[in-house]
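Fold this complex.
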Amino acid sequence: MSLTTSEHESTEDGEHHHEYLPAVEGAENPGGEHESAGERDKKERLMIWLFIGGDLVILILEVFAWFYLRTLDSNGMWNAAKCTAAANCVDGLGNPLIGPVPKASIWHPMIIMSLAIISALFVWAAESASRRKAAKGAVSGPALAALVCMIGAIVVQILQFQVLPFTTIDGGYASVYEFFMGSTLAHLLLMGFILTGLWTRAAKGRYQGGTFHRVRIMRMFGVWIAISTSVLAIVGGFFV
Amino acid sequence: MSIATAPLLLEDTPLGPKAGGLYRRQNALVGLIAGVVLAAIGWVISHALLQGSNWGSDMVVTVTLTCWVIGFNIGIGTFNAPFRWVVGKDSTREDELYGAGVGQGAARYWKYCTDHKVVGTQYFVLVMVLFAIGGTLAMMIRTQLITAHSSFLSPGTYNNIVTIHGMIMIIATIIMVSGPFANFILPIMIGAKDMAFPRLNAMSLWVVVSAVPPLLATFVLGGVDTGWTTYAPLSVQAPPAMDAFAICIITFAGVSVTVAGINTIVTVSTMRAKGMTMSRVPIFAWGSVVSAALGLYAMPAFLTAMSMMITDRATGTSFFVNQLGGAGWLWENVFWTMGHPEVYVILLPGVAALMEIASTFSRKPVFAYKAAVAAFVAIASLAIMVWAHHMFTTGWAPNLATPFMLTTELISIPTGVIFLVLIGTIWKGSIWTRLPMYFLYLFLWNFIIGGVTGIYLSDVPADQFFHGNMFTTAHFHYTLLGGAMIAATGAVCYWFPKMTGRMLNERIGKTAFWFIAIAFQVTYFGQFWEGFQGMPRRIAFYDPIFLRANQMSTVGAYFLMLGWMILLAAIIVSWRNGKIAPANPWHAKSLEWKVQTPVPLENFLVDPVVTSDPYTYGEGVPDGQNEPSAAPEPELVPVGASESSKGEGAS
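Structure:
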C-alpha cells in the first residue's frame, strides 16, 4: 500500500487531532474526545442503525413465535379455546384448565404505545430546539416531558403484569404475550435511562453548542422504541 | 523519508493523580470480588423469596448468575461511563488517556482498558485459555471413547462434557479472529487511531470474561446433557445448570458479540484513512465487516432463543412445550436461525486473514479481489436462508426440504470462489514458505474435505443416514477446526510479530504444524470411518464394531493435542524471549506493517494518506525478480517507524 504522510488534518472545530483539549464547561464531552462533531455524528448514527437492525431481528422472531404458535395451536393449547371440562386440559402445573384463556386488556398496550409515541415526539422537539440552538430550557423541557411519558409507560407496563387475567402457565398465547410484555418493559427501561441522561445533560446546557446530533440519535432510538412497542401492542392486542 | 522531529508519544503523557477517577480502583480482581458479593446477595435474597415456589431452583440460579454478571461488570468498570453520562459528568482527556492504559504498564491488561491493542491482546489470551479448557474436555471425550465400554466417565458426565466442550469451542472460535485481530490489527490496517467506540470495545471483552464462569458452573449445577444445541424439550427438562448455560449465552451473544460487531462495522465504515476507498480496503477488513454484519443477524436470534428458554424454565411459559401450546420446532427454527450463519461468522474473518497471508507471501495482489468481496457477501446472504437443513430429519415442513437443500448447495459456489481466490493468489507467485503459509496449505486441504462432505449433509437423502452420526462430527470439525481454526492459527503466526514485538519461533512452530497437520487427519478420518459404519454421535458406549475407528481417532486426538501444546509453547517462549521483530518482517504492504513495533497509542503519529491498494507487489519489478527480500519499502514511512527496520531482511 503506497502512502504518504500529511500533517494533522484540521477538524471542523478547527482543532488538531493530537492536541489535548482542556475540559470546557458547557460543551458536550469537550475534553474526552478529539474528533469533530461531524465524525462523531457519522459514527453514532451508524451505530444506532446497526443496533436497531439487531433489535429488529429480535422483534421479528418474537412476532414469528406469536404467529407460529398461534397457527400451530399445539395440543389445542394456544389459548385453550376448546378446553371444556370434559376435555381434561391442564395448565403448566397440572391443574385443570377450562378455556378459553381470557384475553388481556387492549387498553394497557394501547396506553403504553401512545406514551412511547408521545415520548418520541417530545425527543423530536428537543432535537429541533437543540438544532436551532434555542435556550437550554427549550431542550430540557421536552426532554423532561419525554422522560415523564416514558416513566408513565413503564408504570403502566408494570401495572399490567398485576392485572393480567392469565399467568405464564396458561398456554402459548399467555406465554408469548407475557414475553412481549417483558420485552417491552426492557425497551422502555432502556429508553428511560437514555431520557434521564438527555434531561440531566440538557439541563446543564450540553446540547446548546451545535451538538444536536447527540439528541438526534436519541430521537432515532426513541422512534424505534415507539415502533417496536406499537408492533408488539398491535400483534398482542388484535391477533389473538 | 521520515519526519525528523516526532511529537511526544501519548503514552508518555504525564497524568494527574486523579486521572481516570473510579477506574483507578477497578480491575479484574475487584470485578471478581464484586461479582461474587453481588451473586451471594442475589442468592440469599432469591433463595429466601423464591425457593420453594414453582421453578424456584431455576429462578434462584438465574437471579444469582445474573447478579454475578452485573457485579463483575460493575467491579471492572463497564458501567462507569454510562452512569457518568446519565448524571451529566464527562470524562476529560486525561481520563481518556488513563482509560487507554497510559502510565499503568502491564497492569492495564487486568483493567477495563480502552486501547484497542490491549483489548486485542486480552482477547488473544482469553481465546487461548478457552481453547485450553475446550481442548482438555475434548481429550476427556476421546479418552472415554478409546474403548467400547470405558468406565472413565459416567454417561451423564460424558454428555455434560460433550455439551460444554461444544459451547466453549463455539464461543472461542467466534472470537478467535474477530477478538484479537479485528481489535488489534484492523484499526491500524485501515489507518484508524482506535476502534470507533473504545469503551464498548473493552465492554465486549469483559462481558465475555463474565460469561465464562456461568458456563463452567454448569458442572456443579447438575450438568447440561443436551449437547450444545440444547434442543427442547430436553433443555426445558434439564437441571438448573441449563439456566447457567442460558445466562452465559445471553451475556455472550446478546451483548458481547453484538456490541463488538457494531464496533467493527462502524470502525471500517467511518474511520478509514484518507484515500482508502472501499476498493482499497484490505481484504481482512472486508471479511471482518461481513462476518460482523452476519453476527448482528445471528446473535440476537441466539439471545431470543435463550431468553425464551429461560422463561420456560424459570417462569413457566411454554414456548417449547408441545402439550402446553408450544413447539420444539420453534426452538429449532429460532436456534438454527442463529446456528448456521454462526458458522460463517466464525469462518469469514479467518479466510480473509489467509488471503492477506497468501498475498504477502506470494508477493502478489489478492487474486480477484472484487470477486472475493462478492463471495463474502454472497455467503452471508445465503447463510441466512439455509437454517432448515439442520431439520431435515425432524419432520418439520417436508415441502421445504428441497428449497433448503438448494440454498445450502448454492453456498458451495461462493465458497468455491474463495478457494479460487486463495489458489489464484499463490498461483505462480514468488512464494516465501514461512510458517503462516504452512497453515494456508493445511487450510486448503482441510477445508476442501470439510466443504465436500458438507454437500452430502445438505443432500436430503444422504442426510437421512449421516444426520446425528459421527460423519457429521467429522465434517464440522474439518470446517471449524481444520478450516477456521487453522486459518486463525495462520493469522496468529502472521501477526504475532506486530502484536508482541517478537518473532514467533518457527522451528518449534513447524514441529507443531506437522503434529497438527498429520494428527488432525488421523483423528477425523477416524471419525468419518465411524460415521460410514453408522456410529451415532454423543454416546459414551458403543458397539465393538466401531472400536478400530475410535482408537484411530483417539490416538490422533492425543497427537493433535500435543501439536497444539507445542504451538502454545512456541507462543509463550517467543513472547517472553523471542527474537525482536522488525516493524515489517514480511515486507508486507498494508498499513499495520508501516507503524513501529510496539505500536504507539493511537497508532499513527502522522495521519496516513493512502494512494494505492494494499497489494502493490511487483509493481515496477521485472518478472521473476519479485523476491521477498527485494521488496521495496514504501518511500515515505510514518514517523515512528524505526530506521533500523527499514530494509531489514527477513529473519
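The domain at 43-76+102-238 of chain A is CATH 1.20.120.80 (Four Helix Bundle (Hemerythrin (Met), subunit A)).
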